[in-house]
Amino acid sequence: MSANVAHGRGSVLLVTGAAGMVGSYVSGVFSGLELYRTDLRESDGIGELDVRDCSAVMVTMERVRPHVVYHLAAETDVDLCEREPDHAYRTNTLGALNVALACQRHNAELVYVSTAGVFDGAKSEPYTEFDEPRPISVYAKAKLEGEKLVQTFCPRHYIVRAGWMFGGKDRDKKFVGKITQFCMEHRSEIQAVDDKVGSPTYAEDLLKNVQTLTQTGLYGLYHVVNTGACSRYDVAVEIAQLLGSETRIVPVESAMFPCSAPRPRSEAARSYKLDLLGMNQMRSWQEALREYIVILRDALARPEPLHAATS
Q1: What is the CA radius of gyration of the chain?
Q2: What is the third-level CATH fold of 12-310?
Q3: Is 14 helix (H, G, I), strand (E, B) or coil?
Q4: Closest CA to 52 of 85, 93, 82
Q5: Domain extents for the chain?
Q6: What pLDDT digit, counting tens, does each position of 110-147 carry?
Q7: How far apart are the C-alpha atoms of 5 and 7, rounded to whole Å?
Q8: What's this model's pTM, rounded to 2 decimal places?
């Protein structure tokens, strides 16, 4: 595919972990660029890439020679990371190191997607980029160590901390996808946690705002989340209302759902640096969710999955 649109200092993009939630929007957002996506079975994918394998990463970089790398590949199962810390650090920390070293060698820009969960949750206000991270889970610790390695080995980087991610349609196996499915199944009752807060982040909005950011050359650390903070209960109530569902949403404490990994009381974040720069395009989480639920409802109503080959 020929490239006609500049992106950063070049127009060839490599995306790791493109089969995930954020990756599902890559082809649409970057439709005018020469795009290479890993871990897809579609004809335009370039096969699987184990980012834990440094030599494999280097070979892929040599083959593609991208101007920009979006490093989306990660282990996002927080509880699995807590149970298997070696796996978490190999994938989320050393994987980031391998990609950063490859970008350094080939003089490529790196976009590394991290998490707003790197804080301990004690702050009453939303966290900004200027707050000190104090991660309490293995997942968050591994992602933070990945941030440090990216900063050390790849000066031309954008570290992007996202919040409670939603999006991906049939690839959405997380909270929003599950609650939507339950409501469409006409369940009589759904329990949702109301004692933890965070900032929902629509994957498509995130990718569009990061695309704009990477054209500035303003390298560094950014929070990119939809505006506002809420609990999982608030999100579930909003989904039920948007779907016109009669399912009763019941608020419960997080102790009702024991997990391997501790969760901070608050993962609420603010895209503060984007605000200061006048570049914050992230809308409210309610507006983003409203748009997405219509899309997700229609996708779930189809008789066949949209991406059966990649699920």
Answers
A1: 19
A2: Rossmann fold (3.40.50)
A3: strand
A4: 93
A5: 12-310
A6: 999 999 999 999 999 999 999 999 999 999 999 999 99
A7: 6
A8: 0.92
